[in-house]
Amino acid sequence: MLPIDATRDAVHRVALAELSAEIVNCFRCPRLVAWREHVALTKVARHQDETYWGRPVPGFGDRDARILLVGLAPAAHGGNRTGRVFTGDRSGDFLIAALHAVGLANQPTSVHATDGLAFLDCYVAAAVRCAPPLNRPTIEERDNCAPYLRRELELLPRVKVIVPLGQYGWDATLRTLAGLGHVAHPRPRFTHGVEAPIGPYALVGTFHPSQQNTFTGKLTPPMLEAVLGRAVDLASA
């Protein structure tokens, strides 16, 4: 018979795999379903020869992670094409390079779902699991997806640190924690590098690694690496 902790871990792993399968088969939001499938059919010129994923994108990473990253949603021609978060787009290029630099990824690139990428002590998820038009999910779509992040967090029992990516990720994280009974008073405001202890978790915020931020210099590799390095330190404390 397995020890109690090992049995609990095995149950969590099976439940997390089942949750990922449930996410992939979600059709709750008609607008998002229509958009993700339209993009998958029409594609863009540089990816015309590829078969797009065109479905919701589950979280990905180390199931024993102590660090959870929370993004906004898959990119239309990134995660919506490849089927893996922050894979195959410029935001992913920037983020994965930084994760590798601080020891949280085994390689600095994230090109396609079978490229051998593995996250080390971190798990990456999104507030919304389908690519939204103009990167702007509606409130209803946001709320439809909210239970997925909450359930993922519950099935990642070793998480100590959450790194929300951008204001959207920050707000989604606060709502998720509130749903689990962890509410901060006063409500912490988002800024790059902000830290906030909420319940059993430490939050460390960063600007989102979108091209809007990285191309303008609002977010640089040293800035992102500093936040991720701080997350590593907090997770190890």
Give structural attributes.
237 residues; alpha/beta; Uracil-DNA Glycosylase, subunit E; 6-stranded mixed sheet; 8 helices
Topology:
Elements: H1 4-24, H2 30-42, E1 60-61, E2 67-71, H3 79-82, H4 90-101, E3 122-126, H5 139-154, E4 161-164, H6 166-179, E5 195-198, E6 201-204, H7 211-214, H8 221-236
Parallel strand pairs: 2-3, 2-4, 4-6
Antiparallel strand pairs: 1-3, 5-6
Helix pairs in contact: 4-8, 5-6
Tell me the strand order in the biggest sheet. Answer: 1-3-2-4-6-5
Could you estimate the helical fraction of the residues in percent? Answer: 40-55%
E-strand count: 6
Name of the CATH architecture: 3-Layer(aba) Sandwich
What fraction strand? 5-15%
Radius of gyration: 17 Å
CATH superfamily: Uracil-DNA glycosylase-like domain
- What is the number of helical segments per DSSP (H or I, 4+ residues)? 8
Encode the helix/strand succession as letters. Answer: HHEEHHEHEHEEHH
Domain count, please report it.
1
Runs in which pLDDT lies below 50 for 5 or more consecutive residues are none
Which class best fits the helix and strand makeup? alpha/beta
Tell me the CATH topology: Uracil-DNA Glycosylase, subunit E
